[in-house]
Amino acid sequence: MSPTSKPMALLASPDPALAQQLSPIFESLGFALRPMSSAAALLSVSDAYTGVEVILLDERLPGIHRGELLAALQDVGVRRHASIALITDGEMDEPATQRWLERLADGILEDIVPREAVREQWATHLLTLRRTAALQREVETMREAALRQVQNDRLTGTLNREAMLSALFRETDRVQRMSGSLCLLMVDIDDFGHWNAELGNVPCDELLNQVARRIEKLMRSYDLLGRIGNDEFLLALPGCSMVNAVMLAERLRAEIFAEPFAVDGLQIRLSACFGITSSRGRSPVVVLREAEQVLAAARLSGPDQIRTSKDASSEMREELLMNSPFVGVSLAF
């Protein structure tokens, strides 16, 4: 939401009269009110919740007492940046009153507002709701920063080995559910120990940073990159076939390591070996070990080698041989 735009409130209510009643009040208080006729309509805009500060739920929404809508709003992460208030008819039976008060005490709701609230009452409620939303956004920002510190490699900002393995378990679950594909591509910089001895730790740290930044420029938005060793990187490629993974490795070799790296006024030329394997829904521990074995074979044949695991199909081999020269690629079938 830009600094000049109005804060947004979403109203989920089956009663059009409620939106007509509240729209001029919210407009006078500097809010844009967007009415939704059902819980399903509210959930359908979950990708736009980042511009919303307040969500209003009408007690008259069908099924709202079962708590499913509140649970769904939790699942889509709306509470990370918005406050939720319930609009009630005022007169509720004791069990219903107790239920909503418990949800208020548990922090599942931020406020309960009577349906007949006037402008002055709404001004007070909205002030409280906005402050709560701002606090929730601040907490979420701090949580994300702390999570990055735990998950990310301190040197390159890529995922660390533990976070990468955790992400691979999630991706493997997806592969198993959807019968999709997932390839792992390991990158090991050739003879990096030589450069450590020659240049020292600080310049070599800068080299690793530059390698990571160049790799990231060639990644898709949903690819994952981690630093899993001193000079080793791992790419997880969801929805990527073995053929495309080999093509990416060749592109990395051509566009990243063919150009020198500038460090301390020097032009440093690096090369790397690549090991590629396919998940096929197997345990990430097994697949990662296989990728490491393939990379070790590439290093023995290296420098500047690309190798694949033995699970590559004959169709892949034929396609590679027919369509790509792949100079320096060694395929193990």
Q: Could you characterize what this model shows?
A:
By secondary structure, the protein is α/β, with parallel strands linked by helices. The chain folds into two domains: 8-150, 3-Layer(aba) Sandwich (Rossmann fold); 161-331, Alpha-Beta Plaits (2-Layer Sandwich), CATH 3.30.70. Helices cover 47% and strands 20% of the residues. It contains eleven helices and 13 strands. The strands form three sheets. Strands 7-8-6-11-12-13 form a six-stranded mixed sheet, with helices on both faces. A five-stranded parallel sheet has the order 2-1-3-4-5. Strands 9-10 form a two-stranded antiparallel sheet. A hairpin with a 4-residue loop joins strand 7 (224-227) and strand 8.
**CATH superfamily grouping of the largest domain:** Reverse transcriptase/Diguanylate cyclase domain
Parts with pLDDT < 50 across at least 5 consecutive residues:
325-333
* Shape-level CATH architecture of the largest domain: 2-Layer Sandwich
The total tally of domains equals 2
Q: Summarize model confidence as the mean pLDDT.
A: 84
CATH topology label of the largest domain: Alpha-Beta Plaits
How far apart the termini lie comes to 53 Å
Q: How many E-type strands?
A: 13
Spatial strand sequence of the major β-sheet: 7-8-6-11-12-13
Shape: elongated
Quaternary structure of the protein? single chain
For the report, how would you describe the main beta sheet? 6 strands, mixed
What does the radius of gyration come to? 27 Å
- Top CATH class of the largest domain: Alpha Beta
Q: Decide which structural class fits the backbone.
A: alpha/beta
Summarize the amount of helix as a percent range: 40-55%
Beta percentage is 15-25%
The string of secondary-structure elements, in order, is EHEHEHEHEHHEHHEEHEEEHEHE
Distinct helical segment count: 11
